[in-house]
Amino acid sequence: MAKPFIEVTDNTFKQEVLDSKIPVLVDFWAEWCAPCHAIAPHVEAIANEYNGKLKVAKLDVDANMATATEYQVWSIPTLILFKNGQPVERVMGAMPKQRILSYITPHLN
Length: 109
Prior knowledge:
The chain is of the alpha/beta class and 109 residues long.
């Protein structure tokens, strides 16, 4: 089964996130980050539930420092919702799925 999210890099970020016609939730994470792994099932569930209305992308901050630095991601996990190429919401830290949704759903049409 295909992953419900895409993996983005410094090289693919503009095309996949900034140029997207639909909102994109970017999960800034790292392999060693336990809280990142804790929210991963929530992020996947959101990707499945909002398929077609929302694109979900994961960006490994260790391998893609330029993008993480550009968007001032200083702690992880950080979720940033991009709409029309602009960051419109930022969620930091591990939290339940419903709380994540409370931040992002107001931005989905």
